[in-house]
Design brief:
- The chain is mainly beta and 456 residues long.
- The protein folds into two domains: 350 residues, Beta-galactosidase, Chain A, domain 5, CATH 2.70.98; 66 residues, Immunoglobulin-like.
- Helices cover 5% and strands 39% of the residues.
- It is built from two helices and 26 strands.
- The strands form six sheets. Strands 7-8-9-10-19-14-13-12 form an eight-stranded antiparallel β-sheet, with helices on one face. Strands 3, 4, 5, 6, 11, 15 and 18 form a seven-stranded antiparallel β-sheet that branches. A five-stranded mixed β-sheet has the order 20-26-25-22-23, with no helix packed on it.
- The protein starts with 19 loop residues before the first strand and ends with a strand.
């Protein structure tokens, strides 16, 4: 059993208007909450909410949500839409501009098509107007209430709008699409930003799950050859579950998340798996995990592709880093996919991922065929910084033409801690551990940041 109870009300937010909507038009049955969480059934204590395939009540997902991490004004900060260590989150069910007015506006809720669509543009100017699938849910949430953050963390100053898409036709019956529009509400950039989707999966009994990764692989189905990328998935260790209140019957399949699209061509940068006992708890440790590090050892190991033992598992699909400009927005698309995955009693690792790969391919097709998929939120999305330079032994620091020759430059590690003062010309970095670092130049109000990777 899990070590926490899921709470509808979070500390400091007892007056908040929480809402829950259900995706229920295809083989998935999954709740969405207007505080950043989905899959968790907040109407029950300690209970999952994501089941598949209908009409069987076989639970695959305990909870999920978006993480946003960054180094902002010298601090390492992470806002969790869903924290698998507690079942809660750090978002509030209203936009940052409204939270000081109190959590009592009935418009701060989930909107559904068909039903009470569209969301009111007067309060939510970024909300969609035209429905794009057989069932759409839309809600928004912000992280500006400091009372909602785990100490010593505090807000980044971001809003998030979530739109879900589900399809009634047979081809896409095992797929849900998620669109996240993330807004930087600050008058300054949020640097070295990572976006990650957290999935906390329980396939029936919580303690016998395994995680896997399809990073980039070609598959063939009949005459069709297709590529599947950026997909994390969870299966059952022995492909067998006892009948219980969380498993009605049948051979377990697999639940997966695929990163479909990110701004500026950003790709999956890390896939990190953990258990209930090893999950990161502080903002710094969570940020290191998002950046591809084992926060316990400091070792850079971005892709946890080999799973060895059954446990209560969760994973992060991470994307970044990029510099998030002031008053800007960025859009990220994901697919939640379910598929059958081998015969009963087959021990992990299951050998045949072909059906899962095909469903992931169909998810990409559904995304590409979705009307209006290229529409951006009202503030637009800028192209993130390019891929980092790789450095071995000596860091050659050129003079920034935008700065004076004597401008201060520092080398920061992935948590934002200064490890070296830099000077123009060669700098010896051979004594530093390999991994991602940042060159920061200038004063706080006129800084430039460049990402590098130190290699052996």
């Amino acid at each position: 059993m899990r070590k926490f109870a899921s709470l509808l009300m979070l500390p400091g937010m007892l007056l908040a208007i929480y809402d829950i909507g259900w995706i229920d038009v295809n083989n998935w049955r999954m709740p969405v909450c207007n505080d950043g969480r989905w899959a968790i059934d907040v109407t029950h204590s300690n209970f999952p909410g994501g089941s598949w395939p209908y009409p069987l009540m076989n639970f695959y997902l305990f909870g999920g949500g978006l993480w946003v991490g960054a180094i902002m004004q010298g601090e390492t900060l992470v806002t969790c839409g869903y924290n698998p260590n507690s079942g809660g989150g750090e978002m509030a069910p209203t936009l940052c501009r409204y939270w000081r007015d109190g959590y009592n506006d009935p418009r701060d809720r989930i909107y559904r098509f068909p039903g009470d669509w569209p969301p009111p543009q007067s309060r939510f100017p970024m909300a969609p107007v035209v429905p794009r699938s057989d069932l759409n849910l839309w809600c928004c949430f912000g992280d500006s209430d400091p009372a909602n953050h785990y100490v010593p963390g505090h807000p980044l100053g971001i809003d998030v709008a979530l739109t879900t898409y589900a399809f009634a036709d047979s081809e896409y019956r095992d797929i849900i699409l998620l669109r996240y529009d993330v807004f930087n509400n600050n008058d300054h950039a949020i640097n070295q930003c990572y976006i990650a989707l957290c999935l906390d999966a329980d396939i029936g009994h919580a303690t016998d799950d395994m995680n896997g990764l399809i990073l980039d692989k070609l598959f063939q189905r009949g005459p069709d050859t297709f590529r599947v990328r950026n997909t994390g998935f969870t299966g059952d260790y022995d492909n067998h579950e006892q009948v219980s209140d969380r498993w009605q019957g049948g051979t377990p399949g697999v639940a997966a998340v695929r990163l479909l699209s990110a701004p500026g061509g950003l790709d999956l940068s890390a896939f990190k798996t953990s258990t209930l006992d090893t999950g990161s708890a502080t903002d710094r440790d969570q940020y290191l995990t998002m950046a591809g590090y084992d926060y316990r050892t400091g070792i850079y190991s971005p892709f946890d592709s080999a799973d060895e033992s059954a446990a209560d598992k969760r994973f992060l699909l991470s994307c970044g880093p990029f510099d998030f400009a002031a008053r800007d927005s960025a859009t990220f698309w994901y697919a939640i996919v379910a598929a059958q995955f081998g015969p009963e009693n087959e021990i992990w690792p299951h050998s045949d991922t072909s059906e899962l790969a095909w469903r992931c391919h169909l998810a990409e097709q559904a995304f590409e065929r979705l009307p209006g998929v290229t529409e951006e939120p009202s503030r637009g999305t800028r192209t993130p910084n390019p891929m980092p330079s790789h450095v071995r032994g000596v860091l050659e620091l050129a003079v920034d033409s935008r700065q004076h020759t004597a401008c201060r430059a520092e080398l920061l590690d992935i948590s934002g801690r200064k490890v070296l003062n830099l000077h123009p010309g060669p700098n010896d970095v051979s004594g530093l551990a390999p991994g991602v670092y940042f060159i920061q130049r200038g004063r706080p109000r006129n800084q430039s940041v460049e990402r590098i990777v130190l290699a052996r």
